[in-house]
Amino acid sequence: MKAFKRVLAVVLSLVMVLSLTCTAFAGSDYSTPSMDRLKFDSKGNFRILQLADCQDGMLPRYGMIEFIKKALEKYKPDLVVFTGDNTTSIGTELEAKMAIEAIIDPVAEAGVPFTFVFGNHDAEDVSKEYHYSIYTQYSNCMAYDADPDMYGMGTHNLPIYASDNSKVVFNLWMFDSNMYNETDGGYDHIHEDQLQWYVDASNVLKAQNGGEPVPSLTFQHIVPNEALDYILVSDTAVENGYESDGKWYYLDPEYAEKGSILQERPCPGTVDSMQMELFAQQGDVLGVFVGHDHVNDYIINTTLKNAKGESIDIVNTPGATFSSYGNEQMRGCRIIDISEKDTWTYKTEALTFFDVMGDTEETRIMSYFSREIGWWYVAKVLEFIPEIGPALAEGFLKLVYTLAHL
User: Fold this and answer.
1) Domain count of the chain?
2) DSSP track, 226-292
3) Is 309 exposed, middle or buried (0-12, 13-18, 19+ CB in 10 A)?
4) What range defines the domain where residue 398 resides?
5) What is the mean pLDDT of the chain?
6) Chain-centre distance of CA 71, in angstroms?
7) Contacts of 57 (CB under 8 A, 6+ apart)
8) Is residue 365 domain-resident?
9) 19 three-class SS
10) pLDDT tens digits, residue range 323-375?
């Protein structure tokens, strides 16, 4: 099956390359989008904070917002990437606006550039166009819609320049992995015209780089289908795996990096877009960073290779949400570090809520009441009682927390 997929990917790649025309390149410069440039700092470093599945409404859980603020303060990223399901299913434009502003305001206040892609939940009731208009009202928003005629919305790339600003030395691909497959059911996938755009852009960057691929990372919401190729099954319990119908499922340790955790089945699109095989053909992608599966935290070194003969990794980041499903062991974010000295490698680490916030009674209480939000609202009402309100609210929360953990 894998061999067939690779042959099909070669055919797809050739069709795309042959379809390029002079007019496709006319006026196209994928190295200089119309915005301030991203670049490596004076020490040759660039850091990305990935936030996956914030997935909350117009009054988001306060623990998540404090978590975002602390991550920005503590890790000082050069770019924040929201990888979809940034909001939950929302019924009105006002709710969408408030939900988006709640997660973006801390990033704007910190003065950090950000970009985003859509997930399957963001635009279930309010259009992507409206969501997009709210994100792009921020001056620190780097996202743009590379081709309005392309399937989905907001697929784009962000080049990263050398520390001396001389040339592009790295690139970030942002794909709208779309929502639901209306024909076959299940989740959607990255469509052919999006992959065509990728090939076009990748080839232009390669030409501008003296014929050498520009090393890149990819960000999207829905995991590539290839993740399923690296799951093994056991009749007995397996550490860092999950149980379903009496069987245990876990990532093949030959390919999954140490510490990888699989707590739910990866949920790719119903149709395999063949994007991973195409990345191998182009040779520029080091890894694909996704969210979508909230309680998975893994790095799979796939058998597909880039131009340097290194694995094209699939990296799942746990969800940051307190509103949707998750757990205290996994809820968090991811830091990705790139060095100008070796742009064909990267370092990454998933960080839990408690890694970022510290593991104290205060943060445990914050985590608990960000999930059991009703009690927290009761406490906020108690705060309005003259003179004794704040102390009463604090005592009430501690009492509820203590009783819940007896």
Assistant:
1) 2
2) GGGGGEEEESS--TT-EEETTEEEEE-TTTBPTT-B--S----BSS---HHHHHHHHT-EEEEEE-S
3) exposed
4) 372-404
5) 91
6) 15
7) 87, 88, 90, 95, 98, 99, 323
8) no
9) coil
10) 999 998 899 999 999 999 999 999 999 999 999 999 999 999 999 999 999 99
